[in-house]
Write a structure and sequence with these properties.
heterotrimer, A mainly beta (609), B mainly alpha (188), C alpha+beta (407), A: 609 residues, mainly beta, Methanol Dehydrogenase, Chain A, 2 domains, five-stranded antiparallel sheet, 6 helices, 39 strands, 34% strand, B: 188 residues, mainly alpha, Cytochrome Bc1 Complex, Chain D, domain 2, PQQ-dependent dehydrogenase (Methanol/ethanol family) (chain A), PQQ_rpt_dom (chain A)
Chain lengths: 609, 188, 407
């Protein structure tokens, strides 16, 4: 297919949608038809992979093209490495210089592999020895989503709430800072992000009645520079003079207190366990805030600020610039922590600096990343619990009949508690202008119950049973055009997709399935070009890098787990439909398809000899 | 009166008299008298020096009593057992309705697990739940895999009805019970 | 006990006979209003009104029991005439709200009409029984002779009787309908919404507000401003209960999985007693709640005080009590806002010491009663969900000091 023609017609289509008939004809030529990553946040590819999202714009796109639609058929295993931990491997490996860094789920061991040697032998191991009891307060398998690299140091988080800086060359600990208290249910599973010499870390534990926060640690010393809570008074949330939200509903004094029943904000959730992006030009970091606690919405009347939304903050002071609440008074555990991809794209004929977010509630949101204005929100999955977003007010219109009620089973709610799509990140290819969204097609029954807060135990108040949505397939990979605001193509998968995607300049999209297949698709058509069966289900984030020998490699961790894979790693009993907060019911057959694992797979083309 | 008529009449009278032998189940809200139930009273393994000690008499008191089992079921929800172990299928914690038991399947072992906590994430409820209620919860936990008399096991669910009630759960004979032992496949 | 209340209560109003005797059992742990229910659990003899008791006591050996039973029944009838019932804190015949007033009016109307009918029937019955039967020899021929004057009179009389009965029934139905309509019409003017959730065996009460952090929770007491219609949203957590404050309104059921509504209004200051009116298990009888009607400004002051988190303990003993509270079984069930205790199994204790009673109206609030309740709740309210926690004497005193400070 002629790519340029597709793009041009795409633009015409988008403009026809966006502009009234009276729009000047030359607008067509003035607006480029393509979305591009924020230039300052996506420097040219150096062949390394120094942060899980690849760059500050979070594109997860590699400019390497040695492996491409033509050559991918020959892709084969270059080497493997067993992590020795057989829990859900959600992390992205990092490659900096000639070393690959991988982190395991609890007990959070950090390995450095020497890529210059054949078979990439172990260079060093760092064992942080986190508290074993932390396993009891990790809601959805004790995963870790990756480490960060900056200035010769690797920064990692441990399940028991510590952030540790490790010298990249030697594996020696430089500093460690205790940030979370497991007796309150706090853990850390997210991958840190290093911005301007500060390590950004947020907590997990929204299912345990913790109070969510994001903190910045000095990369040199580990001292806390600032800490922003996501509930409570403005002084704790770091809302001050700089705060200029777009919508009136986000304005007001101490909304983090007044939109909760008295004292409920103290155990109200709003954690930051997902992804952070950074725009160096606007000098703003973007992060989501997770679900309010407990799940039972009747126990927390009000909008429950600042949970379920997106913050833009100054990285130096932590001061908030804007906030947009995606799901005010969240009804379904719809954490707003998914990846935030910084793209510049034409909206109504003008280029806008945007942040694009495939949200858990089933919509792809496009927000102006300078102001927080919602430019569009279009469904990418099957939704029956809401009808759309009013772009004037930013309000999400919910369907009353699907709202949870105490003492009642509300049936067939789509999407489910983990959402149309959970944490597992999309990738964006500037070559195709498409966003590759790994997502799910599940629905659920929900019954609210009174949640009792007992510190250190879950604070949920809902029983959930999930099942496959219309069509019967449980997973789907969709290529989304953010300019046309429509799906370009999609591929159905039997099991929910819980792995991230990787796109490359070879016009390929890589992703893994929960049965263990690692697949490469044609980025333009969705045609499957290559697949490889790994030892266990894949829920990790694939990466591509240039090895010391100059060749392109693709790496992914295989090892099923996470919320979706709990039935396998916990050996749960599928006779109980509510096991693993209802997810087991949707994937009861996963036990017959895969077992636990924890292996790194690295692929390359056969070396030309 | 004809003799068949008389016979059935006397049978009916006997049947009515037999009702008098029925005794309503005791509801003892205070629970059985509390005796020694510290670590010393609980065997962690299945190997004994000499003759095995008899099981704790409270087993009968709690496991055969519908009131205690029903209270246990209610407390299981109230004290957030179900948020980690679901309705027996497991979540953060292991399933409780199957046949594997990491820290022992006896009432005393379950009691000990709740009181002491376990190193890989089971919190300790020491001083947090009165002993009687722990016995009730432990007895209910055993009913989840059909270990208690069906006449006493809870017969219905008030919630989503995620699985058949305990009364209809087939008994899962505990296998390879390893109290306090090493990791069982796939468990904490 | 009533001295604790910041509002004038009818108990201190001095009405000759003490209308609130049941609430003033300072010395005894069991208030008088329980005397009829508690002993039943203990399988003891049933205490009866003075006079009747002797008869019953003798009845076991004597054969005069029908006579004494009749005396007992008469005594029960006599009870209805007691001022305590007519002017009481739990009496449908002492209405303090519009609806209760209409219901009471209807009740009196029914009583008057039905009593009259009853009297007429009794008189006729008596006449029929006493009048000597005139034996007339019937002439030969058919038994039914409609042309005879006596038969005609009888037909006319019976028709009139049937028409009269129908008219009475229809008229009463009409009145009943009109009263129902009036009662429901009040609902549109409700200014305040209270959500009441019935649990075995207590009442969770939540005051809603459009501003979420101005809503709050309390237990077993409803306070309302005088003259303001209040919408009460009724829910149940476990089994069916029924919300009944006789002085204010009729009964409304609380059904799990369903939301009911009623509107109450109190026209007069005072304290009234509500009672679960649908059998709900072991402690149904001890599932009461206090309804306190107070002037608007006092109500607002009370609401403000309820919105505040619990006061921090001020002395060493209370601090120790708080520590015990947060580290023992208390924290598994109760909420004290401002601390880490936030469980919702039992009543919210943030302002427990400001409430008129404890254990859902079982005991008036006093430090001594609270001590008895914590030490052995299963003696005071057997089968209740409050367990014997097993605190040491010292711990108990500390917890008491702490809780008594939670005004």
């Amino acid at each position: 297919m002629d790519v340029t023609r597709v793009r041009r017609t795409g633009a015409v289509f988008a403009l026809a949608l966006a502009l009234p008939a009276a729009a000047p004809a030359h607008a067509q030529d003035a607006a480029p038809a393509k979305a591009v990553p924020a230039a300052s946040a996506s420097p040219p590819d150096d062949g390394e992979w120094a942060m899980p999202a690849k760059n500050y714009a979070s594109t997860r796109y590699s400019e390497l093209d040695e492996i491409n639609t033509g050559t991918v058929r020959d892709l084969q295993v270059a080497f493997t490495f067993s992590t020795g931990v057989d829990r859900g491997q959600e992390a992205a490996p990092l490659v900096v210089g000639n070393t690959m860094y991988i982190v395991t789920p609890y007990p959070n061991r950090l390995f450095a592999l020497d890529l210059t040697q054949p078979g990439a032998p172990l260079k060093w191991t760092f064992d942080p020895k986190p508290a074993a009891s932390a396993q009891g307060v990790a809601c959805c398998d004790y995963v870790n989503r990756g480490v960060a690299f900056a200035d010769g140091r690797v920064f990692m988080n441990t399940l028991d709430g510590q952030t540790i800086a490790v010298e990249a060359g030697t594996g020696r600990e430089v500093w460690r800072t205790k940030l979370g208290d497991i007796n309150k249910g706090e853990t850390i599973t997210m991958a840190p992000l290093v911005v301007k010499g500060k390590v950004l870390v947020g907590n997990s534990g929204g299912e345990f009645g913790v109070r969510g926060w994001l903190t910045a640690l000095d990369a040199g010393t580990g001292k806390i520079v600032w800490k922003a809570y996501n509930t409570g008074p403005d002084s704790d949330v770091l809302i001050g003079a700089d705060y200029k939200p777009f919508y009136d509903k986000e304005k007001g004094k101490d909304l983090g207190v007044t939109t909760w029943p008295p004292n409920a904000w103290e155990i109200g959730g709003g954690t930051v366990w997902g992804w952070i992006s950074y725009d160096p030009e606007l000098d703003l970091i973007y992060h989501g805030t997770a679900n309010p606690g407990p799940w039972n919405p009747e126990q927390r009347p009000g909008d429950n600020k600042w949970t379920g939304g997106i913050f833009a903050r100054n990285p130096d002071s932590g001061q908030a610039r804007w906030f947009y609440q995606v799901v005010p008074h969240d009804l379904y555990d719809h954490d707003a922590i998914n990846e935030l991809i910084l793209l510049d794209l034409p909206v109504n004929g003008t280029m806008r600096k945007t942040v694009v977010r495939p949200e858990r509630n089933g919509y792809v949101y496009v927000l102006d990343r300078a102001t927080g204005e919602v430019l569009s929100a279009d469904p990418y999955a099957n939704i029956n619990s809401s009808t759309g977003v009013d772009l004037k007010t930013g309000e999400l219109a919910m369907v009353e009949a699907k709202a949870p009620k105490m003492g009642k089973v509300v049936r067939d709610i789509c999407p489910t508690a983990p959402g149309s799509k959970d944490w597992n990140p999309s990738s964006f290819s500037p070559r195709t202008g498409l966003l590759y969204i790994p997502h799910m097609n599940l629905c659920m029954d929900w019954q609210s119950a009174e949640a009792n807060y007992i510190a250190g135990t879950p604070y949920i108040g809902a029983e959930v049973r999930m099942f496959a949505g219309p069509g019967g397939h449980r997973g789907e990979l969709s290529a989304w055009d953010p300019v046309k605001r429509a799906k370009a193509w999609s591929v159905k998968e039997d099991f929910p997709l819980w792995s991230g995607t990787l796109s490359t300049a070879g016009d390929l999209v890589f992703y893994g399935t929960m049965e263990g297949w690692f697949k490469a698709l044609d980025a333009r058509t969705g045609e499957e070009l290559w697949r490889f069966k790994t030892g266990s289900g894949i829920i990790g984030q694939p990466i591509a890098y240039r090895g010391p020998d100059g060749r392109e490699y693709v790496a992914v961790l295989s090892g099923v787990g996470g919320w979706a894979g709990a039935v396998v790693v916990g050996n749960l009993d599928p006779r109980d439909a509510t096991a693993a907060k209802g997810f087991v019911n949707a994937v009861a057959d996963l036990k017959d398809k895969t077992t636990k694992g924890g292996t790194l797979y690295v692929f390359a083309l056969p070396s030309k000899r | 009166m004809s003799s068949p008529c008389r016979r059935s009449a006397s049978l009916a009278v006997l049947a009515v008299l037999a009702l008098a032998a029925c005794d309503r189940e005791e509801r003892e809200p205070r629970g059985a008298p509390v005796g020694e139930s510290g670590p010393g009273a609980i065997a962690q393994g299945t190997l004994y020096a000499g003759e095995p000690s008899p099981p704790d008499p409270r087993r009968q008191e709690y496991e055969g009593n519908a009131y205690h089992l029903a209270q246990g079921k209610q407390l299981y929800v109230w004290f957030n057992c179900g948020t980690c172990h679901a309705n027996g299928g497991g979540d953060i914690g292991p399933p409780l309705m199957d046949d594997s038991w990491i820290y022992g399947d006896s009432l005393e072992n379950i009691f000990a697990t709740i009181v002491q906590g376990r190193p890989n994430g089971m919190p300790s409820f020491r001083n947090k739940i009165p002993e009687t209620q722990i016995w009730e919860i432990a007895a209910y936990v055993r009913s989840m895999s059909g270990q208690t008399p069906t006449a006493a096991s809870p017969g219905r669910n008030d919630s989503l009805n995620a699985k058949p009630a305990e009364q209809r759960t087939p008994k899962a004979e505990p296998k390879q019970s390893t109290p306090g032992g090493p990791q069982v496949e796939g468990r904490q | 006990m009533t001295a604790r209340l910041p509002i004038p209560s009818p108990c201190s109003a001095g009405r000759g006979r003490d209308p609130c005797g049941a609430w003033e059992g300072e010395g005894s742990v069991i208030p008088r209003n329980l005397a009829l229910t508690l002993p039943r659990l203990r399988r003891g003899p049933l205490p009866l009104p003075p006079g009747a008791g002797e008869g019953v006591a003798r009845s076991a050996s004597s054969r005069q029991w029908p006579w004494h039973r009749a005396a007992l029944v008469l005594c029960l009838f006599a009870l209805t005439a007691c001022e305590r019932v007519q002017h009481g804190i739990q009496s449908a015949l002492d209405p303090v709200g519009q609806q209760a007033g209409r219901i009471a009016g209807l009740w009196w109307l029914f009583l008057a009409v039905l009593a009259a009918v009853y009297a007429v029937v009794l008189v006729l019955l008596l006449v029929a029984a006493i009048r000597p039967r005139r034996r007339r020899r019937l002439p030969p021929g058919p038994a039914f002779r409609p042309e005879e004057p006596i038969e005609r009179r009888l037909t006319r009389g019976l028709t009139a009787w049937a028409v009269g009965t129908a008219a009475i029934v229809l008229t009463l139905t009409g009145f009943s309908y009109a009263v129902d309509r009036d009662i429901l019409a009040l609902g549109h003017r409700a200014e305040l919404t209270i959500e009441v959730t019935a649990k075995q065996w207590w009442w969770q009460v939540r005051y809603d507000d459009p501003v979420p952090n101005r809503s709050f929770e309390t237990a077993n007491e409803i306070r309302l401003p005088v003259g303001v219609p209040v919408r009460v949203v009724l829910k149940a957590q476990d089994v069916i209960h029924s919300f009944w404050v006789p002085n204010l309104h009729g009964k409304t059921d609380l059904i799990p999985g369903r939301v009911n509504e009623t509107v109450i209004v109190a026209d007069r200051e005072g304290r009234y007693r509500g009672q679960c009116a649908e059998f709900c298990g072991f402690q149904h009888a001890n599932m009461a709640l206090d309804v306190v009607a107070m002037p608007r400004d006092q109500f607002e002051a009370w609401r403000e005080s309820q919105l505040a988190p619990a006061v921090a303990p001020s002395d060493e003993r209370s601090r120790e009590g708080q520590r015990v509270f947060l580290t023992s079984a208390c924290v598994m069930c109760h909420t004290v806002r401002g601390t880490t205790a936030a469980s919702r199994v039992g009543p919210d204790l943030t302002h427990v010491a400001a409430r008129p009673s404890i254990a859902a109206g079982t005991l008036p609030y006093s430090k001594g009663n609270l001590a008895g309740w914590i030490a052995d709740p299963q003696r005071i309210k057997p089968g209740s969900q409050m367990p014997v926690v097993g605190l040491s004497a010292d711990q108990l005193q500390s917890v008491l000091a702490y809780l008594d400070g939670l005004k």
